Amino acid sequence: MADAETKFLQLDRVESDTFSKAKPKVPGKSGSLLDKVTTAAANGTSTSHVLGEKMECDTSSPRPRTEKDPPKLPPIILPPSFKRKASSSVRPEVNEIAQAAQPAVTRSSSFPREEGARRSHATTVSNGVVREATQARDNHIDKSFAKPRIRVSSNVSGQARQEKSEFNGHDELIALIGRSSFRPTIKSRTVAMLPSGHTKRMRSLAVSLSNPDLFATSALDCVVHFWKLQSNRSSATLLKTVNRVGLDQKRWAEDIAWHPHRSELFSVYTADDGHAQISAISLNEARESCESKFLKDRPHSKGLINRIMFTPWDDPCFVTGGCDHAVVLWREQRERHAWKSSLLHRDLHSSSVMGVAGMRHKNLVLSCGDDRRFIGFDARAEKATFTHRLDNRCANLLPNPRDVNLVMVNTRQLDRQLRLYDVRLPQTELFCFGWKQESSESQSALINQSWSPDGLHISSGSSDPVIHIFDIRYNAPSPSLSIKAHKKRVFKAEWQSSQQLVSISSDLEIGIHKLW
Questions:
Q1: Which tens digits make up the pLDDT trace of 250-264?
Q2: Cα dist from 237 to 76, 194, 225, whole Å
């Protein structure tokens, strides 16, 4: 008891010194803690009750802080946990990114900060999921690439919230891949089946980038036909026919591609025997004949040139890939029909290059081939940025028209033909689509795909013969729609708009199909 009285006397002196200036003392009623303890002992009440009253008084009426009072530390508030609904499907790469990202601690503004302390970035999202570029992603990508922030509602819906990326006018669609568990309702109707006018098997189909009403077809008869949709968009009219570009043309066009800004069609051939490799045909509807010319440069050394693809860059460029393992970049010069070629690489692929494309990052050129390699090459730095080896041979690749980071790779594996990748994480497969073939046990390299203008659907030919339509938002690998219109193998079905397709087949017919 002596020790306790000594402690109470010390506390009483401190409180008396604190309140002596603010409140005058009244004789016999000092209000000190010792007086209250003494009074409570005389009345027979417990000391704990008095102490409780004193604590209530101190908390209800704030007093000025002295130098001896320790500073109050505010509670640390953690951000709410990011939870998904049980009904929504979670992709494995989203889990990896969410585990790698450490949630930042939100501090109160009154909490004192040390000088030089870094401010932690805190993100608060109610009922949602936020994907941000993490340090693991930064190790795989170049700093010049886009690092978008994607915010997606946790509700499985086709109208998920999207945010614009750093590239104006382009959307982020990667977060929508495989998020819907409901099969989309897509209906179709074949409005026309036209004779192609070719005498041998058709090979290529290309829709004009500057005028979607124009499209061209090529076949093994070395003939190129130019077509134009009628005003009702339910049929097409043959505009021009080009039998041969030059007298030295010995083979048919392996692939064709339109210039993105004018009505000019480019075709690739073979590199054997020193023949011309690239041709350009200028379409002028007012003239009876088309102006055509072979390009002078012959960079490919041997074999077929399998692919030609224009890049979505400001300067007109296109990329070619062939059986000589080479990937070549072509740039337009000031002279008309003058193009200068530059070899990007020839030793990164060990087999034929089957697909090439340029991404909107302007310095990235993608390629894939029979060696199962998927390669990204920086054309400006002249070095490979990534190399990914797939489990099957690659036949082609196509960048998404809206998402600058999304690319589709076509493989020859049945049931898993179409693979989706993010070029920022090329080692991770986002999703895969496929179909079962009944007419053949192998996947042909002549079967090609096409992206819809909205970037949400993929069309593909098949050997069955069926046109398959895939919705990237559907979380099942099977097609969302299959169109039976042709009698033989369908090589390609390309989009003229988000509601219309044009297709070619071995039956030498051209199909026009409407979707809704």
A1: 689 999 999 999 999
A2: 72, 9, 10
